[in-house]
Write a structure and sequence with these properties.
By secondary structure, the protein is of the alpha/beta class. Helix content is about 35%, strand content about 15%. The longest helix has 18 residues. The structure holds pyridoxal-5'-phosphate.
């Protein structure tokens, strides 16, 4: 299958692309010019179905009029205000609306501009909380192999994906990684796998070795997303919760991908019945139309930090120029309306079994070595050919050429479509995957 799009010009050289092979892309670019609903369109007008909701963001489908209208009106009314010492009503309104979706008790919302910022913000909240309570010895963090927690220095230190770490030295000292939960005996499991709850005992071992009283927080994605959909083994998250409680450690769910319906519930916390102390979110909260993230904190954490502060002084020395940006808040509020009006989360829950069965049907292809799935997210592992990741990379290029966009990581192809997907879109996604995987 040839790559028939027109080729690059020298005007492409200035942009240093993130997480992309710059040299290759600029010699054979794969561009999008517009999008609507379930589809991207190339500059030549060719339709490309969006099988990864952009990058797990576009839950409500592309270019929703309600969102663009709200952002446009906001920018004409109040384009910017300093978020420190000044406020605007939409930030308060959005925070309140978000608490209708977060797990019970996580009702204090701190706004940031990305998932990465939400992770580093949650790390600081954990440290500040313990310090306020006279436990400033709690400096250690625990995360997991194969985790992705964004790209800021805190998040990179938590990260468990080698390419995201190795160029940047040691990162923060005092971060320990539990083993990942991808076990051979769980291959081709649908939903939560049976085996691996005992891997949570790694946390207990760290408590024994380093002192549970020295650990500030444990960060996990309820389902690891970027690495390629690793749902938690049954009982695993409950066990982490138990060990955290036993040692006074905060449990943080990084729900940047798993939040807002992707797991077939508001958040992974509700999908798996385990409540964290801090929860990070981003991506789908504005449908990806404006950069925005947030940390939802237990009220006790907020109360502890704010009550310890001076009567008239700043309590938490943290924030971004664009925290609670008016245009992002407007997009977020419009998205909250869409969640309610389109019943997107209920829709995701209802669609999940059919989605999972359709993706698992690819199991009969010899190239497919594993499929993992939960809610509205699945990953198809394909057999490596040459260097690890080379075939996955080739697959995503050929898929674009065949009219399908998805995110690949190594040799895993991740399918996480907009939650507005209909049966005919699912059929198209699966048949294009079959066609292209058959060509590799
Ligand atoms: C679990 C998780 N945390 C953090 C991030 C970083 O988010 P961002 O790219 O918005 O900084 C991501 C991005 O995919 C993510 O999946």
């Amino acid at each position: 299958m040839g790559h028939a799009e027109p080729q690059v010009t020298s005007t492409m050289q200035s942009f240093w692309m993130p997480f992309s092979p710059n040299k290759e892309f600029k010699s054979e670019p794969r561009m999008f010019a517009r999008a609507k609903g379930m589809y991207f369109y190339t500059p030549e007008g060719r339709e490309v179905i969006d099988a990864s909701a952009g990058l797990f963001c576009v839950a409500a489908g592309h270019c929703r009029d309600e969102i663009s209208q709200a952002v446009f009106e906001q920018l004409q009314t109040l384009d910017f205000t300093a978020p420190f010492l000044r406020g605007h009503s939409k930030s308060f309104e959005l925070a309140e609306r978000i608490t209708h979706y977060t797990p019970e008790g996580l009702n204090r919302i701190f706004f940031v501009n990305s998932g990465s910022e939400s992770v580093d913000t949650a790390m600081k909240m954990a440290l500040a909380y313990h310090r306020t309570r006279g436990q400033s010895q709690r400096q250690l963090f625990v995360s997991r192999e194969r985790a992705y927690h964004g790209v800021n220095m805190g998040g990179v230190s938590l990260a468990g994906m080698v390419n995201n770490r190795r160029a940047y030295g040691t990162g923060m000292a005092g971060v320990y990684h539990m083993r990942h939960t991808a076990l051979p005996e769980n291959k081709f499991a649908k939903g939560q796998p049976e085996h691996g709850a005992d891997l949570a005992d790694d946390l207990q071992r760290f408590c024994a070795l380093y002192g549970g009283e020295n650990i500030a927080a444990v960060f996990v994605e309820p389902t690891a997303g970027s690495f390629g959909c690793l749902p938690p083994p049954k009982g695993y998250l409950n066990k982490l919760r138990q060990i955290c409680d036993q040692h006074g450690i905060l449990l943080v769910f990084d729900e940047v991908i798993t939040g807002w319906g992707r797991m077939g519930a508001n958040f992974g916390a509700q999908a798996f019945g385990v409540t964290p102390d801090l929860l990070t979110m981003a991506k789908a909260m504005t449908n990806g139309a404006q950069p925005m993230g947030a940390v939802a904190a237990k009220q006790e954490i907020y109360d502890t930090i704010t009550q310890a502060g001076p009567a008239q002084g700043i309590e938490f020395f943290h924030g971004y120029t664009y925290s609670a940006h008016p245009a992002s808040c407007a997009a977020g509020l419009a998205m909250m309306d869409i969640f309610a009006k389109d019943r997107l989360i209920e829709r995701a829950a209802a669609m999940s079994p059919k989605f999972i069965d359709a993706i698992h049907a690819l199991r009969d292809m010899p190239i497919v070595t594993d499929i993992r799935s939960i809610g509205m997210m699945a990953a198809v592992d394909i057999a490596a050919d040459g260097a690890p990741g080379a075939r996955g990379h080739e697959a995503q290029k050929r898929l674009y050429d065949a009219g399908l966009h998805l995110k690949s990581t190594g040799d895993a192809l991740i399918i996480a479509p907009p939650l507005v997907m209909e049966d005919k879109h699912l059929d198209e996604i699966v048949s294009k995957l079959r066609q292209v995987l058959g060509s590799l």
